[in-house]
């Protein structure tokens, strides 16, 4: 039925809706075949709403540009002068990356205030503009069933924690997740800040850890974009001894919370009753990351290091394990060992594949159905690297599967790069150099990747946000 709607009617509708409503309309237009590659329609969208709202059309415009460039390359003489000008116009108007560093956030927020018709200038000014003067971003993650994301870190001026739900489609902060009265009792400073170290979001919960102590804060979500008890979070005291490296991960249904750390302790808590239901401790096997099997809350994956005889960090090896956490069981279902440290892992959406990354960005893809290695992902710089020249301060890399059934995954590579891989053949699709754009500190030097719930955007805790199609379709075309 959608394909029967005349294009001119859709164009007229655009004139009478707000910018925010336009996002919903154009998301629907993606499924209208005749609009998918209609340059004039998407050009009109941008003419109505400006490049400030380019996220509305990024999916369609990227696809259109790829196809148009391919056609132009094959038959450039068939293109009129006006069509060539249109291609140049797309290149000039469309930005491939969008950064969430505080300077850009403040600039875009000021633009929003100038066009805001809700009469809430003062309220937004107090809650956002004044608080974004000196924020160091250390964590970010997506919120299920929402286009919102969570951005956290600390305030550089005084070291106090910072954690916000951020609506990047409107470039505003939605909710402050920090309960100020609770944190006032801690003696944090700008040289030793109360920084957010890890954050995770489930279907109706948010949990986060910090670098100051072993407190795990639990916040429940109610409805869409609204936090029920954000002014009074439940504090879970984790029994981890290493309070500066605590990773948290909620199960898909938010019933269980996995807490891991570099002291080799892995705990699983019942979120509703805040009770420990499963635990394991192996001090010689620090755990760098954990992830739940997406279709089974009983299976927990973890990866980390094996401290071999304390003879030096360069002699450490790595491991990947899968545990069955059901009552009275500490059964190790699966286990792999590696020649260097494993620092991050991710389960594909269909739960068929496991991707994990080693020190310096080397990755592997495993087929969990037959427990066989699918591919090894080796960055060019690692092919001639001497891994015995090792510093304890190396970054713990991260990996995440891109949506769809194409078998693409993204992994970080020290120093400050992101590789996009085809896991089926192990070939590198694209490389993003972060060093030219982002400044790292001791509190965000371990990269963390995530994918938004709608599968359209890739997040990095260093303060960046990319369109998935920029990384897959455009890169594939260029290759």
What do these coordinates show?
The chain is of the alpha+beta class. It has two domains: 2-95; 98-478, Methylamine Dehydrogenase, Chain H, CATH 2.130.10. Helices cover 21% and strands 33% of the residues. The protein is built from eleven helices and 28 strands. The chain has helices at 7-14, 19-29, 33-36, 39-49, 58-74, 81-93, 102-115, 121-127, 180-183, 468-471, 473-478, and strands at residues 97-99, 135-142, 149-155, 161-167, 172-176, 196-201, 205-210, 215-220, 234-237, 247-250, 256-260, 265-270, 275-281, 287-292, 299-306, 317-324, 331-338, 342-347, 353-358, 363-367, 372-377, 399-401, 408-413, 417-422, 427-433, 449-451, 457-460, 464-467. Strands 1-28-27-26 form a four-stranded antiparallel β-sheet. The protein is globular and about 65 Å long.
Taking all Cα atoms into account, the compactness measure Rg is: 23 Å
Number of E strands: 28
* Strand order in the largest sheet: 1-28-27-26
Distance between the termini: 37 Å
Biggest sheet: strands, sense, closure?
4 strands, antiparallel
In the predicted model, the low-confidence regions spanning at least 5 consecutive residues are 50-63, 93-131, 223-232, 472-479
Domain F-box: 1-45
Keywords: Repeat, WD repeat
Protein name: F-box domain-containing protein
Organism: Tieghemostelium lacteum (Slime mold)
